[in-house]
Model the fold of this input.
Amino acid sequence: MFDFLEGYDLLGAFWVTVQLTVYSAIGSLIWGTLLAAMRVSPVPLMRGFGTAYVNVVRNIPLTVIIIFTSLGLYQTLSITLGAKDVTDINFRLAVLGLIAYTAAFVCEAVRSGINTVPVGQAEAARAIGLSFSQVLGLIVLPQAFRSVVGPLANVLIALTKNTTVAAAIGVAEAAYLMKEMIENEAELLLISAVFAFGFVCLTLPTGLILGWVSKKVAVKR
Done:
């Protein structure tokens, strides 16, 4: 029944999808947190940059961003991010594009968590002489992250599905292999079902586990 899978590295393709997700998730969390810090910063220039970045990037289709990383950064500006092989270059550029796009949504999730922290706590921290960065890092962000595990889980699930766009620049992840198999095989419905099941196996446990974590670490007010 599944003879059409012979000769194709299905597990390898999904492993590339997992790698794209993990690297992009780490980068998005770091960059998105920095953007959130900018959006609540007392410095007008930083607030303006954070606001402009989020409003612009999240309204650009991800496909446009991914293709720009290939055509704009690599082919036009010859930026390779330290890679020499074309496969590695495309992979790193795809991660960069996913980070740039997903960080805008991470930023908004983290900022919503920051807004749940009582203002009095930040004021008390400033009253004892803590700087803005100390207040944010020691008082606000630890509580904010605890309240946004659920929203961040949704962003992570969306990121996992968005990795399929990397196929547009030749990254050999699951969607790229699916396209190749559909072109070469006649089992369209079975191929679609196999890849749909694969993504369910990646995203469903993520949602369930992080949903459980969200309930465990939620801030009681």
Observations:
- The longest helix spans residues 86-116.
